[in-house]
Amino acid sequence: MASSWKLVLFLSVSGCLSEYSGALPDLPTSYATLLRIKKSSSSSLFGSKTRPRYSSPLLGTLSVSSPNWQGAAQHYYSPINLYHSSDAFKQDESVDYGPVFVQEPDDIIFPTDSDEKKVALNCEVRGNPVPNFRWLRNGTEIDLESDYRYSLIDGTFIISNPSEAKDSGHYQCLAANTFGSILSREAILQFAYLGNFSGRTRSAVSVREGQGVVLMCSPPPHSPEIIYSWVFNEFPSFVAEDSRRFISQETGNLYISKVQTSDVGSYICLVKNTVTNARVLSPPTPLTLRNDGVMGEYEPKIEVHFPFTVTAAKGTTVKMECFALGK
C-alpha cells in the first residue's frame, strides 16, 4: 500500500513538472520546480504578453493581455497602485511599469550676482525600462544640442551661466518609456537683481509750510519685488511713517502732508531686494521751504484719475485709497 501511494505521488509530481517545463521550454525541469508564481512577478515570469500596458500622462489607462498558457496566476500591478506604493517596484525591479515622479521641478529665483554660476532644475522619475527625459520651456521642447550651456544629468536639467534674457520662463520635465509618459508641473525660473540709481543730481523741491509734497523715488531696474524706505538727512536716520508721512510700497514715493519746518532737509530713497538683500541709495533730494508767499508747484490739491469701470468678482470688496496732501 505504501509503495502504491509513493508511485501515485511520483506520477503527480512528474505531471506537474512536465506542464511547467512545457510552459517554460528554455528552463530545465529541475529549475522549474523552484519557480514560484508571485503576485509581484507574474508579468516578468511569463513574458511580455502578460505585462501590463498603459500610456497616459497621468497613468490613467491600463490594458492587459491574457497569457497564452493555462495555470498562470493572473495578478498585475495597476498604474494607480504603482503610483501610490513606491515599495511595490522597489521589491521587484523585474516588473515593467510606466514613469512615476519621485521629484518634480520647483520654482527657482536665481540671484544674478551669485557665486554659483549654474541653475539646476531637478526631475527624478522611476520606471522600468528606465525612462528618457526631455525638457520644455514655455511649452516648447528644448534642443539640448542647441546651446553649450545646457546639460542633462539623469533627469536634472542644468544651465551654466544662466541669462535672464535667454533662460527665464516656465519649465516642465517630460519622462517617457515604452509603457507611457508623464509631464511635470510648471517650474518658474526667474532672476533676482537690483540695478543702481542714476547718478544724476536731483533738483531741490521747494514747498510752502502747511502744503503737501510728494518726493519721487524712481527706483532702478530690479527683480523680483523691492522694499522702499527713506533716509532723512543722513544714514541711519529713517523717515518714520505717521499721520503725515506715508511711503508707497508700490512706487516708492514719499508723501508728506502739511509740511513743517522740521521736515526741511535732504531725503534719500533706499531700496532693498527681497531675495538678494542687496541695497542701493538714490541721490539726495533737498526739501526747502518757500517764504515768498507765491503759490508754488506743490499747491495743496490732488488730482486723481480712476478708470471709468472697475472689474471685481461677485461678492468681493473693492478698496480704493487716497492719501490727501494739503491743509
From TrEMBL:
Residues 1-18 form the signal peptide. It comes from the Eukaryota. It holds the Pfam family Ig_3. Residues 99-190, 207-282 form the Ig-like domain. It is found in: Cell membrane. Keywords: Cell adhesion, Cell membrane, Disulfide bond, Glycoprotein, GPI-anchor, Lipoprotein, Membrane, Repeat, Signal. It is a lipid-anchor; GPI-anchor. The keyword Glycoprotein applies. SMART domains: IG, IGc2. CDD domains: IgI_1_Contactin-5 (cd05848). Belongs to the immunoglobulin superfamily. Contactin family. PANTHER family: CONTACTIN-5, PROTEIN SIDEKICK. This is Contactin-5. It comes from Ceratotherium simum simum.
